[in-house]
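Structure in, sequence out. Go:
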């Protein structure tokens, strides 16, 4: 989440958003990354005009772009840099001193798992082990995986917690690209995916499908295992509840997670066999899908108020 106030730095954000065209560009990029030509076609504008608007959005930190290989050489592809922003005029104490720890977890860096075929994993260069053989999820090379998939089960990650006893964690969040897992692919394949912190289920999201009819912007050309890209989702657990892309997911708060200082935190992502929609999952890391990122985790904290004796 991007925080804005009345300072000069925030002015670029407000200026970038004060345009119907740029708001429409953000709306388009919230669905999927697009190159300049695709944005121009979607809005009925010239590529030169779109480039000017992109520069404004980039300066505000709202989008990023990358030069990626296309059909006719390299192309500039635009991605949303943030999922939401919050503006405030009187700064609450909880925000005044807020800081965060940021961690990047490669999708293959799980420490515990239970999976069922169809399943597999791959780097950006090749498949790891054999497809549909769960035993290879124990292979030491799983740490190098940039994409993993399975129809039932879970993967669990360990998040270091460097908060001190003098610091209070007020929220934890992560973002990742994810979709369902069907044989081959199936755009209409709902899957109930549950997110857990420290063994506490903070909510379940139903992914609508396994997307493979269109090539993922980043997915290597050699990859032929159905799923091409996912949806970028952000889960945030706060003192007021748990949220998915800003929409309330459950009443579970950060205090329910028992985030004791200096103890690791577990993040489990699960597609349960008992779910109403047991449709598996695919986790996309860097080099796959439409968003060039791994699992990004933030632990936000504030100093504890000093007790008066």
């Amino acid at each position: 989440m991007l925080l804005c106030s009345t300072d000069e730095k925030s002015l670029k954000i407000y200026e970038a958003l004060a345009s119907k065209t740029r708001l429409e560009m953000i709306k388009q990029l919230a669905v999927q990354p697009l190159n300049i030509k695709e944005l121009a076609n979607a809005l009925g504008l010239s590529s030169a005009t779109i480039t000017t608007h992109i520069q404004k959005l980039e300066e505000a930190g709202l989008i990023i772009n990358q030069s990626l290989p296309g059909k006719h050489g390299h192309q500039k592809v635009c991605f949303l840099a943030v999922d939401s922003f919050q503006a405030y005029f009187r700064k609450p104490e909880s925000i005044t001193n807020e800081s965060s720890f940021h961690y990047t977890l490669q999708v293959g860096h799980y420490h515990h798992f239970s999976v069922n075929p169809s399943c597999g994993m791959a780097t950006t260069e090749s498949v790891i082990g054999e497809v549909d053989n769960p035993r290879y999820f124990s292979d030491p090379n799983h740490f190098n995986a940039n994409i993993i998939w399975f129809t039932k089960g879970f993967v669990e990650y360990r998040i270091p917690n460097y908060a001190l006893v003098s610091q209070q964690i007020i929220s934890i969040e992560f973002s990742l690209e994810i979709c369902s897992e069907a044989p081959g692919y199936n755009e209409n394949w709902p899957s109930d995916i549950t997110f857990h912190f420290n063994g506490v289920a903070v909510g379940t999201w139903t992914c609508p499908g396994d997307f493979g009819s269109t090539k993922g912007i980043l997915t290597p050309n050699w990859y032929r295992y159905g799923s091409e890209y996912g949806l970028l989702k952000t889960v945030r657990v706060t003192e007021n509840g748990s949220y998915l892309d800003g929409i309330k997911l459950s009443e579970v708060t950060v205090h329910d997670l028992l985030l004791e200082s200096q103890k690791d935190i577990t993040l489990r992502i699960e597609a349960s066999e008992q779910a109403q929609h047991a449709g598996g999952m695919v986790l996309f890391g860097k080099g796959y899908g439409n968003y060039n990122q791994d699992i990004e985790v933030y632990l936000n904290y504030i100093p504890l108020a000093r007790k008066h004796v």
